[in-house]
Write a structure and sequence with these properties.
16% strand, four-stranded mixed beta sheet, globular
């Protein structure tokens, strides 16, 4: 009669973990195309599109830092922030970005897109939150929203 095992092989748990990680990474969905992302936001959200060569670009990092303390203000105005990093965009996304927003890679661009899908403002430098919110608060749709609240 065989003796019961007193210990299990030590390599089984790491192999299971590696298999699980591989399975999860294999099922990670591809990011939605930029055009589809913006289309999904239409009439739902205002978009601040941040376009930069990489996430390490100084203006990209500065704009994100400016926005980091403004979560409530962004939410109040129905904002979503969309990052478009040139080094991660497909050729189709890059072409759409240039055509739709006028962004000129490799330069940084902060682009305000209204709920109607139109470009309302484009800057080659980070937009101070006061300027961003001031621009939005002058828009007729935003004024209607403020009256309803």
């Amino acid at each position: 009669m065989p003796q019961p095992a007193t210990h299990r092989p030590r390599f089984r748990a790491p192999l299971l973990l590696l298999g699980l990680l591989w399975l999860l990474s294999a099922q990670t969905p591809k990011p939605m195309p930029l055009e589809q992302t913006l289309r999904a936001s239409r009439w739902q959200h205002r978009v601040l599109l941040l376009a930069a060569p990489t996430a390490a670009h100084p203006d990209f990092k500065a704009q994100k830092a400016l926005l980091a303390t403004q979560k409530a203000e962004l939410a109040d105005r129905d904002f979503v922030v969309v990052e478009a990093l040139y080094d991660q965009l497909s050729a189709a996304d890059l072409a759409f970005l240039k055509q739709k927003t006028g962004a000129q890679p490799p330069q940084f661009a902060a682009v305000l897109i209204g709920k109607d899908g139109g470009v309302k403002e484009r800057r080659a430098r980070p937009i101070p939150p006061a300027d961003l919110f001031g621009t939005v608060d002058k828009m007729p749709m935003r004024r209607q929203e403020m009256r309803r609240k």
